[in-house]
Amino acid sequence: MKPLVGIIMGSKSDWETMSHAADMLEQLGVPFEVRVVSAHRTPDLLFSYAEQARERGIEVIIAGAGGAAHLPGMVAAKTSLPVLGVPVQSKALNGMDSLLSIVQMPAGIPVGTLAIGRAGAANAGLMAASILGNKYEQFHLALEAFRAKQTETVLSQPDPREA
Ligand code: RP5
Predict the structure, then answer these.
(1) What is the ipTM of this complex?
(2) Domain 5-155 -> CATH class
């Protein structure tokens, strides 16, 4: 199956965080691609990626970036596909800069912004599967199974002192 989700990030250094989105999609059986697309280092690539994503069959874009994180917002400006933004935890400001850069989109061009770092990346994968699950039954079922297993894991270990 061709990739349905495009995971993009501003730098190779974001992969440690964004790999959690990839792991989640892999676990749910959702086909995806991964690319480094920098808003400020490769602006032309950013434009062409966003412009061509839909015609290539991509249905959801997950964009992660840190610092002055304009990648998700700029991608959203160039495509009407749903864009999920993941604020990468920056060294200088712990990701508060990334979060505020991504979340504060002016009305008109939305970016669905997730939490800073690993949790945000994993949840972006889950949310992409949830969006796709409306159209593809197998992803809906995979997501339901993931959640049921997660619940069962918590319920089967009620005492936090036990391994
Ligand atoms: C942003 O600058 C990237 O998204 C990354 O989080 C941050 C630092 O990039 P590197 O200097 O590590 O390449 O564009």
Answers:
(1) 0.96
(2) alpha beta
